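Lecture 7 notes: from sequence to structure.
We start with the chain below.
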Amino acid sequence: GEMFGFGGGRGRKVKDLKRGKDIEVDLEIALEDILRGKEKEFSLHKYNTCTRCQGLGAEPGTKTKECFSCRGTGQVQQIRKTVFGSFTQSAVCPECGGEGYKPEKPCNVCRGEGRIKSEEKIKVFIPAGVDSNQVIKVEKSGEAGRKSGRSGDLYVRIYIKKHPVFQRKGDDLYTSAPITLTQAALGDEVEVPTLDFTKILLTIPAGTE
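Predicted structure tokens for the same chain:
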């Protein structure tokens, strides 16, 4: 299909070229953080929209113009010679990168890209009960697209830190409570810690093994 010029349309190609990349990051949280929903903030070094040109790629006050090579189509025709003869093939215009236009004067900061690499603080809401290896999708928080293209998405993979007191199995928590031989034989009440830093009284039945 590509050999004979039957490849995908211009709209799809331009969209793919301008869209920013998705990003996946790992986020380690404490076991206490899963008791109730909590917002986490972290820094990420990635492509962000250029603040000088607002993502357009052109110097403020200047305009964009139609690409001379492709006449605004974003594609050029290439003739390929094979053993079967010559074939015309559509290809992405190398002059404008498939966008169909070029800025009269590229932005001095981003050099016409519409984006620059910089540090950005990201806030992610961690829902209650989340578990290790679960992924939270944050739309349009990935890398900024080229020249006002759509930003990619951010995927945050959660990892729960090992807790010194509790072990998690699904939605249940397990912990150990040391007791004396007398408490086991006669029974008693002992204090047991909980994950929210309070303590509860646990009844030890007489004859506990």
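Points to note: The two ends are 75 Å apart (CA to CA). The first strand starts at residue 23 and ends at 29.
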